[in-house]
Amino acid sequence: MSLREADRPGARIAIVGGGLSGLYAAWLLAERGIRDWVLFEARSTLGGRILSIPVAGSGDGSTTAASTARGRFDLGPAWFWPSIQGDLSRLIDTLGLARFAQFESGDMMYERTTDEPPVRVRGFVSSPVGMRLAGGTSSLIDALHGQLERERILCQTAVRTIRQAGDRLELDSRHASGATTTWRVQHVLLALPPRLAAQSIAFEPSLPDSLSKQWRSTSTWMAPHAKYVAVFDTPFWREAGLSGAGRSGRGPMTEIHDASMPGQAAALFGFLGVPPHVRKSAGDAVVKTHCRAQLVRLFGARAAEPRAEFFKDWASDPWTSTAADMQSTGDHPEPPDSVVPTGPWKDRLTGIASEWSVRFPGYLAGAVDAAQRGVERVLGGRQSAVDPLGE
């Protein structure tokens, strides 16, 4: 009998959220020989704020699934820095994923205002150098998912209520079809942003006011942001000695980078500087038109007709953003408390999303850090011999 069919199903640990932190927590539990867990993801797909969009047949004329995966481009986080984010780097190596350095060779383009034409300026190389994953950051999600028991992962299933029930917790979940199920568990790992957890889940009894206020005041990384990607057959800007980087005070994109995949299609991507309410009012088609026009201003006429283009407005994603995020500056958040120190929720609830990381709040490495610390807290700090990341 599958978990879906079980009568009044239960598990030792419930993980709420199927992004990097949730899947990594499940992977750590499995590595420690713990199979008594269940993961809930409200979206139809896994990854959370990690989103890599495929372009079929990128670069070599192939339309195989493997080629499509290699030709994916990131609309969510894309970079990591191995020299300062060791746990994430080791996880990537453990999973056998290929990495490459962000392309930054050449000059960059800069436009100051609407009244001044763009100018070419000397480019720079970041230090430490940012790295990316072949096939996009979703390769990390795919690799973790591929090593987990699929029947323990419930997509299109949102947790609506978590309540105390004696020595257990009860979770009321709702599937996209409308079906509801009550689960009984011992501990909950919250792998969704603090603000979203505080707004979308009813806690019975209520969380302490001070903690609830902390969570609601913690900005969600990516929530106010939007990204545009334009895909081309070749990185033509490199022929002119340009790195593909751009900065703009005119917009709509304020920051642009080369997003090409080695051996696959070329691409440019940019972060939108237009406020969320303006983007929503304009609509995706208008935003894309203005982004293409900006690429033409910066990189020439060959940028006018991308082979494919994608736009993701995270402010319009109900499983990422709340109304409070519309006023956010988009900076990386200060981490709130991840546990309830006293009262009925003590030792029953742990936040493990990236925003709860003390070391890297909001970053990919923050998701790994917070999940690892959360799992160790639930297991009483115990590490097994099979843990490849134990230090």
Could you explain how this protein is built, in words?
- This protein is an alpha/beta fold.
- It folds into 2 domains: 10-48 and 142-218 and 328-378, FAD/NAD(P)-binding domain, CATH 3.50.50.60; 52-136 and 224-316, Polyamine Oxidase, Chain A, domain 2.
- Helix content is 24%, strand content 26%.
- The protein is built from 10 helices and 19 strands.
- It has helices at residues 20-31, 65-70, 86-94, 138-146, 194-200, 209-217, 236-239, 276-282, 284-299, 364-378, and strands at 10-16, 37-41, 52-53, 73-74, 99-101, 107-111, 119-121, 131-133, 153-155, 157-165, 168-175, 180-190, 202-204, 226-232, 242-248, 253-258, 266-272, 308-313, 349-351.
- Strands 1, 2, 9, 10, 11, 12, 13 and 19 form an 8-stranded mixed sheet that branches. Strands 7-6-15-16-17-14-18 form a 7-stranded mixed sheet. Strands 3-4 form a two-stranded antiparallel sheet.
- Helix 1 packs parallel to helix 4, helix 1 (20-31) packs across helix 10 and helix 5 crosses helix 6 (209-217).
- The radius of gyration is 22 Å and the shape is elongated.
- 44% of the residues are buried.
Write the layout of secondary structure elements.
Layout: E1 10-16, H1 20-31, E2 37-41, E3 52-53, H2 65-70, E4 73-74, H3 86-94, E5 99-101, E6 107-111, E7 119-121, E8 131-133, H4 138-146, E9 153-155, E10 157-165, E11 168-175, E12 180-190, H5 194-200, E13 202-204, H6 209-217, E14 226-232, H7 236-239, E15 242-248, E16 253-258, E17 266-272, H8 276-282, H9 284-299, E18 308-313, E19 349-351, H10 364-378
Parallel strand pairs: 1-2, 1-12, 2-9, 6-15, 10-13, 12-19
Antiparallel strand pairs: 3-4, 5-8, 6-7, 10-11, 11-12, 14-17, 14-18, 15-16, 16-17
Helix pairs in contact: 1-4, 1-10, 5-6
